[in-house]
Amino acid sequence: MASTVTVGQTYALVADLPLQIESYSVAPLSAPMGPDRIRRTTHVQLSGAGEEGIGEDATPIEEDQLAFQEAAPTLPVAGEWTIDSFSSHLAALDLYPAPPVHERLRSFRRWAFESAALDLALRQAGRSLADVLGREARPLTFVNSIHLADPPSFEPIRERLELFPALRFKLDPTTEWDERLIAEIAATGAVDTADLKSQYPPPFGQPADPRLYEAVVRAFPEAWIEDPAITAETRPVLEPHMPRITWDGILWSIADIERLEVRPRAINIKPVRFGTVKTLFGVYDYCAANEIAMYGGGFGELGVGRHQIQYLASLFHPDTPNDVAPSGYNLPKLEPTLPTSPLTEVPAGIGFRWA
């Protein structure tokens, strides 16, 4: 049966929400991710009419974060807006006090302001996002996304399963994975997604490797295969598994989904990449209209941004292997008190936040 969903109908529910902004501020967040790495993000706080809306800039470049945190709050955002008119205003502003290291990551900061504005407008209206969208937040299934250090070892997976036997994973296979390690991981039966990361630029990306691809598709026959590179060498390996191939790193808009060689059965939804509420909600509509499943993805959020992507996933795709685990799962060592899947948080009575 054909879907009755049209692109734009979800955004129309929030586009005209009134928004009053008097000022904004930023607040730094940080967490140790290992002996020589600190993750930094930034809360963006918009204030007006006695309320405060918060979003989070999850830009992965430390120098971009520090420049933003140290700059004076001089962006001209004060005024009477709607969600839609404020978004148009943001499009005309340069949100970076210094040029970003990677131009394409501008959408990350845009999402911080857009999500803060949505939170503030909803709070000023005395309504929740779930209420305005007419959707019910449902228990949220999540997976733990981890990258095994070099040299890769099964120990991090073993340690996590000893703490949380029902935990499921999104893993990043690399050319350093040998047959023994792959067999150990496969024996857990706990892998929902294998992220090949071949759509990321160097040094973050994984080269197209038909040997690795063949080992992965055989070892994890039920898992989604995310972001392979389809080349003359890898195509024969991947073609029998096309229904399992999903995409993430190359998706920044609906147009990017439409450019895919084959319409996917599922995609990874990262709000920070889509940048605006309008684009994100349009992708939700597009996927619903074209029967494309969705699973959420994060980008190392430390604060409200992680809660917001969990909130969105609970409204639009709660039952898929969402890579939106609580932030504590991103740390090298897990605390045994971490919440387990599914998350059962309830939306706050107003705003774009959990209760």
What would you say this structure looks like, in words?
- The protein has 355 residues and is of the alpha/beta class.
- A five-stranded parallel β-sheet has the order 6-7-8-9-10, covered by helices on one side. Strands 2-3-4 form a three-stranded antiparallel β-sheet, sandwiched between helices. Strands 1-5 form a two-stranded antiparallel ribbon.
- The chain folds into two domains: 9-130, Enolase-like, domain 1, CATH 3.30.390.10; 132-330, TIM Barrel (Alpha-Beta Barrel), CATH 3.20.20.120.
- It contains 13 helices and twelve strands.
- The protein is globular.
- Helix 1 packs antiparallel against helix 12 and helix 3 (83-91) runs antiparallel to helix 4.
- Strand 8 (191-195), helix 8 and strand 9 (224-226) form a beta-alpha-beta unit.
- It has helices at 9-15, 62-70, 83-91, 106-125, 129-133, 155-163, 179-188, 210-219, 235-238, 254-258, 271-274, 277-289, 304-316; strands at 18-21, 23-34, 37-48, 51-57, 79-82, 144-146, 169-171, 191-195, 224-226, 245-246, 266-269, 293-296.
- Helices cover 33% and strands 18% of the residues.
List the SSEs and their pairings:
Elements (H helix, E strand, L loop, with lengths): L8 H7 L2 E4 L1 E12 L2 E12 L2 E7 L4 H9 L8 E4 H9 L14 H20 L3 H5 L10 E3 L8 H9 L5 E3 L7 H10 L2 E5 L14 H10 L4 E3 L8 H4 L6 E2 L7 H5 L7 E4 L1 H4 L2 H13 L3 E4 L7 H13 L39
Parallel strand pairs: 6-7, 7-8, 8-9, 9-10, 11-12
Antiparallel strand pairs: 1-5, 2-3, 3-4
Helix pairs in contact: 1-12, 3-4
